[in-house]
Design brief:
By secondary structure, the protein is mostly helical. It has helices spanning about 1-25, 35-65, 75-85, 90-110, 120-125, 130-155, 155-165, 180-200, 205-220, 230-235, 240-245, 265-270, 285-290, 300-315, 315-320. The structure holds zinc ion (ZN) (2 copies).
């Protein structure tokens, strides 16, 4: 059964590649990128399956146990667009095109000077014989790096200027996890590439980690009254746990400028003192939105306003006027 599914998947991938991608690459004189194009089709298909599964599972759950009931779902639409651009590969492809050459150069230089080993297994040879342990180690490392990236997104004014776009959704749903500024997506690309460079995540494992992370992120953003219980809440990020991160006030104010930064494992928040396990389902958004601050409704307006906030944060007067955090 699994074999026949995977055979049909590969056949579909090959069919799509030959009928759509290959002719385009040929027409543009880019046939040297054929292998990369074939991989891109695989990621595109994963994205389609992911969106279908997530919609089939989470949409009924949101209807059954919503935190909030909305009469108008229009504000959700822009998040659907972010999800399609992200999951179907448009944004990842742009980020890849911008980063492939500089990251490749950096990788080559570091290896030429013998500054980094190729894989985590070079540091911990015991992992070579234990693929599951090695997968768990990569997963933990990437999640740890993502926790700190997220903390710094709140910590630095210039980064919050971009990341606040993610927090500005007041009708948060399972579509909201990809709602990010394009410059922020680019910074994330650099961050992840550096981590991958340092520990050498094998590509197949990287795809698995990516799919797993995205699935948990879709669930944790859902407009869903769901907690995993006293123990489960400390094991995996739940909709309740992440909703606290999006709460007006608690999500972007206080000593750490927010709480519950973890993507997969609340462990990091517990270790670094930023966990909040309150039994609450707060309204989401940013404090200054209550005073009328505009973060934009449509994609381009949101991107433009984000850039404007970034410029303000980078100028001396602007950084002292940090609002909402
Ligand atoms: Zn955040
Ligand atoms: Zn979020």
């Amino acid at each position: 059964m699994i074999e026949s599914v995977s055979q049909s998947f590969v056949a579909l991938q090959a069919g799509l590649f030959e009928s759509v991608v290959q002719p385009v690459l040929f027409a543009l004189g880019l046939t040297t990128y054929a292998e990369m194009g074939f991989d891109a089709v695989e990621l595109f298909l994963y994205g389609v399956i992911e969106i279908a599964l997530v919609w089939l599972l989470l949409r009924p759950l949101e209807a059954l146990r919503p935190v909030e009931r909305w009469s108008d779902r229009k504000p959700v639409r822009v998040d659907v667009l972010y999800t399609l651009l992200n999951r179907l590969g448009v944004i990842p492809l742009l980020v890849f095109m911008l980063l492939a050459v500089p990251m490749g150069d950096l990788d080559g230089w570091l290896r030429l000077h013998d500054l980094i080993p190729r894989h985590l297994e070079d540091w911990l040879p015991a992992l070579r014989e234990r693929p599951w342990l090695s997968f768990a180690a990569y997963l933990l490392i990437i999640d740890f790096a993502e926790y700190w990236r997220h903390r710094l997104q709140h910590r630095f004014d210039f980064w919050w200027a971009l990341h606040s776009l993610h927090h500005s959704q007041r009708q948060m749903s399972f579509w909201s996890d990809s709602r990010n500024h394009l410059v922020d997506d680019l910074i994330q690309g650099v961050w992840m590439s550096l981590v991958a460079l340092l520990v050498g995540v094998p590509p197949a494992q990287f795809v698995m980690i990516l799919l797993l992370t995205r699935a948990v992120e879709n669930l944790s953003h859902a407009n869903l009254r769901l907690s995993f219980g006293t123990f489960g809440e400390r094991l995996l990020v739940s909709p309740r746990f992440h909703r606290r991160h999006h709460a007006i006030g608690a999500g972007h104010e206080g000593r750490h400028r927010g709480c519950n930064f973890a993507v997969l494992f609340p462990l990091w928040d517990m270790v670094f003192g930023s966990a909040r396990f309150d039994d609450a389902y707060d309204a989401t958004g940013i404090r200054d939105q209550l005073q009328g601050a505009d973060y934009g409704d449509g994609f381009w307006r949101q991107q433009a306003l984000g850039l404007r906030r970034l410029v303000t944060a980078l100028t001396p007067q602007g950084s002292s006027l940090r609002s909402g955090a």
